[in-house]
Amino acid sequence: MASTKGYAIGWDDEIIDPGEPEFVLLTPGVYDFTVTGFERGHFDGSEKMDACSMAKLTLRCTNGVQETTVFTNLFLSSAVAFKLSKFAKSIGDMPAGSTTGQKFHVDWNNIIGKSGKCRIKTRVYNGKDYNEVDDFIVPDPAAAPAAAPAPAPMPQAAPAAYYAQPQTQAQPVYAPQAQPQQATIPTQSVVQPQQVAPQPSQYQGL
Q1: Would you report the helix, strand and coil content of the chain in percent, each value rounded to 5?
Q2: Helix, strand, or coil here: 124?
């Protein structure tokens, strides 16, 4: 969205002629608005209202089909405090609903960017038609989305009792000792002397 505040031009700067801004006459009805400009002013008073401070607002209004900038003033006077109340409710600075007798405060220092709804009408002045904010729309409290219920707290699990597990003592492992083997004595074969039969002597009979 382009700024509506413009920019400073130096004395020796070249100036580009942008042409006269196109005036958009809005069809009377309800429009969404966003506060794009705010200036503190002063009202000098009249026969109907004493002198007071005045908020000069610049509103960007749109209904999805038409869109333009509309200027309006809010007088900080008890004579029109109901208009201030409706504006505060429209932008969310005051809760919607019955607030008769309640005190409220408009956060003027942070008014830029706040949004709401307003009713636009056509005003005829010196034979010309102009857009004029006729009223600020107070949101319907019943239409506001209900706040989601807070989730129920999860039951806390009872802490599990801690039982120290007895540590298993490592059993020493004994390697089986080798049994001394008895030396195997080889069995010696005992040669039995053979009985030699006596041989007849060759000299017998000589």
Answers
A1: 10, 25, 65
A2: strand
